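Just scan my protein:

. . .
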Amino acid sequence: MKDCKWALVTGGSSGIGLCLARELGKRGYSLALVSNQREELPVCAASLSEEFDISAEWLYCDLCQADAPQQIIDWALSLGGSLEIMVNNAGIFSFNFVTETPIEKVQAFIDLHVAAVTHLSRLAAIHMAKQGHGRILNMSSMSCWTPVPGLAMYAATKAYMRVFSRCLAYEMRDSGVTVTVAVPGGIATDLFGLPPKLKRLALRLRALQSPEAFAKAAVKAMLRGKMQYINGFINRLGILFVGLTPTCGRMLVKHRMLDRNIRRP
């Protein structure tokens, strides 16, 4: 596999991660998939390899473990060829009060969205700078601009990912390595637990975008070397409105959604 150009994708066996892997496979990149979905990983790798006639390898790994980033990078480099692309996509979500979130879940947000992304990006950037080229894509979220009750851990850690990625992009600018942060809003995946009927309606109304369409645009932005990609004009406009939302609006979320559903007797 010494001639392979590898794209390493975390969380690559489902959701947006799988769509990103498919998009990269279409473009001829060999795929190194990492996930904690033990059963899905080999199936996805085999399917992508057959569909696009590429090499596709997989590694079952818990990215919350302290040694996971080094283990992942060492594994990817052992495959031979060159590591061209690093995609930090793996993530978790919950809608709950911080005080009512188990400490293990709080720590998982920090381990996965902050520590793993930081260390994987750093290790990939060091290697790519030595080879003189490479691209890193980190997946933030529109929630990084949404400080509302219930999203403290998700929004805060996604905000870190965005700021970290922008700073790293400037630091790597003269090395031949580009860093792109994707800031998706309204993607029709299972992350938020929407019922299938509601998800289909939202897609028809264009309130949500399909993960396939988002992945295609995000990969295109990364390959063009853009530092940030936000999907859709409405989402870009929404950043302004979120920033102008008064306290009473944010508290409405708490009273109507959190208090009624999470603290229900």
User: Anything to note?
Assistant: The two ends are 58 Å apart (CA to CA).
